[in-house]
Fold these 4 entries.
Entry 1:
Amino acid sequence: MKLYSNRAGELRHVQSDYDCFVPKSLREVEIKIDDELIDLLSNANRLLGILDGMATTLPDRDLFIAMYVEKEAVVSSQIEGTQASLSDVLQKQSSEKRKDIEEIVNYVHSLNYGIELMDKLPISIRYLKEIHKELLKGVRGENKNPGELRHSQNWIGPMGCTLSNATFVPPTVDLMQEALNDLELYMNDADNLSSLIKIALIHYQFETIHPFLDGNGRLGRLLITLWLKYTKYLQYPLLYLSLFFKQNRMEYYSLLMDVRFKGKYEEWIKFFLKGIIEISLDAIDTINKINKIKDIVFNSINKLTYKNKNTYVNVVDYLFRHPFFNSKDILEEFKLTKPTVSKIIAELVKLGIVVPTSNKQRNVVYKFEKYVDILENGTEL
């Protein structure tokens, strides 16, 4: 590691003959606001306001949030190397990808748990430990002290590297604890800094401290949404930057390193704000498409002349919560007869609302194709 500027921290030599990076307190950092940063910040704030407002137009806001979180969880876990897709998670039937799916489900549970926990705990080290424990429960990293801060030195670099030639070495355990205590105070400070600039700095600082043996990336990405929700900047947890980080992975890591060793906070913040703008536009577009597909589907159902048309409406509403299903699912959910269920599914297939996922004659799984495509790929209707 080579330090070009001490603006963001310093290298500290450890007796074991390696250097670790000790970040400077964020309260000591003054951000230089130029015209480009002002424009990006204004645009990001505006789009997040639109997104937060549009959430109230959704026919089922909680459902959309749950599905969007699953999409976010897939991308966040893919950054860490999992191979499961959103369809795999929604079907929950791929045994060969079971561990990957469990990791994604844990991510979703951790976000929901984090929101519930806000009623009991402030954003703090204890709070982060609780979420970390949930995040690693039964998945990759479960043998690396879930919910416990690291008690040994970790490092980042290519396979086989050591402390002496690692790309980045976070602070030692005692210095890590000091930095975490300072970060906890910063996260709860009331100041005049924009919330979006502040969370960009918080994310950077958390990843730099690297306080856990595993799961730092996943938790650091969760922290963005959780902190904005905790501070009431966002009413609904609809901002997820994993897709932007994944699509710009090399730049993401490079800019974090440039803050550490060159003090380039402003470049990192601008990148972060560009991510917020891009992802907000994507989420707004997704909400528009979902509202459009709801209108199209329910218009099709309303044209039916069956006496039990309301049952079709209820089944379609169910599909927005369970876009992969079989006849047994409908049977158990609505307490209908087998002939009635068969008739409903056949009609939904005829209308092009659902499609079978295989040519099997029995236990066929059906897919609410257009809806899944929108969530997974942003496909146009």
Entry 2:
Amino acid sequence: MSISQASQKRPDRKLPAPTAALPITLAGCDLRATVMLEPHHHEWGQLTYAVHGVIRVEANNSSWIVPPQRAVWIPGGVVHSVTVLEDSLLRPMRVYAGRAPFPGPECKVLELSGLLRELLAALEKLDRQQRSRRELLLIEMILDEIPRCAEHPMHVPLPSDKRLKALCDALMAAPGAEFTLADWAAQVGASERTLSRLFERELGMGFGHWRQQVRLAHAAPLIARGVPLSQVAAELGYASQSAFSAMFRKSFGCSPSSFFK
């Protein structure tokens, strides 16, 4: 289903824009799996918190996976699209450009601290029709806490070269494929050496590392909805659950079950 076919075309359309006097505005929305928000941008920054569900954000030639209890920061002016991978309850928060918690145009996936979750919950419960000192205090505390949250690198860079893009699109559609770089070279009409050079030049990493990032990204919605780790490992091309868990721990410093707790 395209977002243009649904009433959820822009779930935050009625949310008022933030201002210097009120630098944060907050709302909630439910989005069904397969909903897509086509590329767009806004003048304010946006921090979208996934209470539950999983979304993918594409911007700046990269893709970010946002699993439950995480948030994605999208700076003002950055063109981005959103794909809902699992039915999601989101909390999009607009942030006045002059109060952006991070400098620059980079998107980030953050682990919300317990304090930030409580601050957001408290802000959401307020009567937003009447401005109050409590609301302004909560907003200031939220803006102070956001940059203190840990960043999680569930990030997949995307290429511009057509040959490399064909390979990357195919691998993102089938992350468990066990083809070697030589196998892919035969399919996309470029030599293995050329593809290897393109991976380093355009994506800043080798083929194996990039494929691992893709597999991690695809593991997120599977684990979030309770798919057994043995099945996740098999679908993503790992010989065993232990092999998948070891790779996950090496990347994130904890087990998959701890990460998605």
Entry 3:
Amino acid sequence: MANNPGTVRGMASMLTSGFFIYIQLACIRYMSGEVHPFEIVFFRGVFGALVLLPVFWRQGFEPMRSQRRGMHLMRAGLHAVTLMVGFYALSLIPLADFAALTFTAPLFGTLLAWILLREPFRPTRVATLVVGFIGAWIVIRPGFAEVSAGAVMMLGSSFVSGALATTTKSLSRTESSLTITIYASFAMIPYTLVASIPFWTWPSLTALGWLALIGALGSVIQLTYAQAMRDADATLVLSLEFFKLIWASLLGFLVWREIPAIWTILGGLTIFVAVTSLAAHESRSSRLAALPPAETP
């Protein structure tokens, strides 16, 4: 129920996460002219980890206790890949296009669950995936417009993000949002350092200030996203995802005077409707499966 305190808190956390994601992405795009996107991801991790250090002062290493460290490390690797590829794509395509294509992540997650986990592939899933990927086609329009490398990279990032979201939901059943955030922030650093070395340039003091802001926002985003996944039903949380396209369109216009193409809005809306329908159907199926069998007379 939407009036449940936990649900309201989860929805508020998701809205906050979505808003700060696009504030952060605007900062990243601004900085990508001076610092390579891979290096930005590295510094995001470093400064994000620094923001979390006071937690250890207050709570010691208690938040690090976990029986699922392997999954935390895997999630950190997935997170590093999706951020590096996504940040690079961000430097190449309009912010609204970036936002619209991020909606494909749950579609890829469903597809991966079918391929890797052998989950049943019911007709409803097939239909929503077809509609969702038609939406992605509308945004990119291959055959009618030149397909940019940024759009292809963004689809790749969304593919990895689908696996990341599945891992996050699994961890949120047993781990606190703080534990998930700490492991992601600290474990990402060595991954991204290795990837950024070939492109390394020392940032200026001004750039370091921007990178520190990006890192701090990254920790806030992870905390609020993990909290949203923990507190609220996935269907309700997902219904707020469309605000990301609104935030992206507003920031793109205000900062870079980008006017979203009608194809971006139409395609993003198509993907969003497909993903929301899929989540609603899956949630309803899960509730029905949890009901006790009816007694026969």
Entry 4:
Amino acid sequence: MDFKLHSKDGKARQGSVITPRGEIRTPAFMPVGTAGTVKAMYMDQVKDLGADIVLGNTYHLMLRPGAEEVAALGGLHSFMKWDGPILTDSGGFQVMSLSKLRKMSEEGVNFQSHIDGKSYMLTPERSIEIQTLLGANIRMILDECTPFPATEKQARDSMALSTRWAERSKKAFEHYDKGEGDALFGIVQGGVYESLRLESVSNLLDIGFDGYAVGGLAVGEGQEEMLKVLDFTVPALPENKPRYLMGVGTPEDLVLAVSRGIDMFDCVMPTRAGRHGLAYTRKGKVNLKNARHANDHRPLDEESDCPAASQYSRAYLHHIVRCGEYLAAMLLTWNNLHYYQSLMQEMRQNIEAGSFDAFVAAFYKDQNEGDLPPID
């Protein structure tokens, strides 16, 4: 894997991550394909929207159908019919948030599946082995996602454990990797504490990774606190490596994080919102459950080149959302992912053109008009 930085505008960066499966244009948003599918979407749709990479989840795929089973079927690329790059997260966050019972130790995490209660042990070595079996092009170290709020001591102990697991993850990657150009990213932890975040960065740089993620955010700390953490963390990360903000976020989050030098994102927000009647547009959010849309003939965005945004009235979308039709989730997810990918493309273009500040100003001007009633 290689990272090429093509241009900068302030701290915002436009570049490319080169993988064996193709180029990832940055800033990049990775649609989340948790269990081998981007919910309510065909994979060729996801590609046509402009996504260069998707995310798969170690926790969910290890539970069903199982990593060995996916490998026997040709790997995750073949299994889910996606020929571009795939990043897999380590499973650590889901172990902490979804499993019924879990017990942390130096070795790893022993947990019970949220599906059937079966016991599993996830160690740094097993996480990397699973990600290798899946065939991920970018793999993540196993870390402990520090909860919020956490005392400084809790955050320090958690960060120190994640550092030790990072060392073991790196050794496991060197053992399991087939030497085909795939990558391993480290994850910066340390809660909201500047000294701990910088210590985590220093530790990870000593170990050495192909890219660096900022983890442990979007867990309840709020946008203001998240941005403070990015302000003191991102400048410490190497210029010549991709920077990935995990689990973020809203369109505004993406714009503000790109302005601070972040290159890669993932979040379930656009797909989850689509399944719950919420559309993201250039003019802001539109809640299609709202009765004000019942007789609104306007599309979500008549200027969009996405059929879901431009060819269906808000009245119709409101109707199928209220009726619980499957098509509602399909159309709104299509719209949302189209908007997210268009937003990333606009940011790439404006960074290259040196007009990123003007883009940000226009973005904020537009974002408050999405759910307004029609003008008589």
